[in-house]
Design brief:
By secondary structure, the chain is mainly alpha-helical. The protein has a domain of 38 residues. Helices cover 89% and strands 0% of the residues. Helix 2 crosses helix 3.
Length: 101
């Protein structure tokens, strides 16, 4: 009888622990959800409507792409090979570098 109660208590504890862990995972917003929340908050502060709101949200959500592009440019420009190339060779190298990263 004591073993049955112990096993039941252990099973209950494991179930509650797993459920709490799953709830924590479900609550954590993704990067996109976080960005959407930030953009929505910014938009509400500006009180935009209709097409203006759509344009703002599109620009706000794509800002991350611009930041990534700038980071790629910095990395490719810092490459030792980019520093030694000139003209068309440099253009070709930069193009390939930006595509690959």
């Amino acid at each position: 009888m004591k073993q049955l109660i112990s096993l039941t208590a252990l099973g209950l504890a494991l179930t509650l622990g797993a459920g709490a862990h799953a709830a924590e995972d479900a609550k954590a917003p993704t990067k996109q959800q976080s960005k959407m929340a930030t953009c929505n908050a910014d938009e509400k502060a500006k009180t935009l409507k209709g097409d203006e709101r759509k344009a703002f949200m599109k620009e706000c959500l794509s800002a991350n792409k611009q930041e990534k592009q700038q980071t790629k440019m910095k990395t490719c420009n810092a490459d030792e090979k980019a520093k030694t190339l000139k003209g068309d060779e440099r253009k070709a190298f930069m193009s390939e570098c930006l595509k690959s990263k």
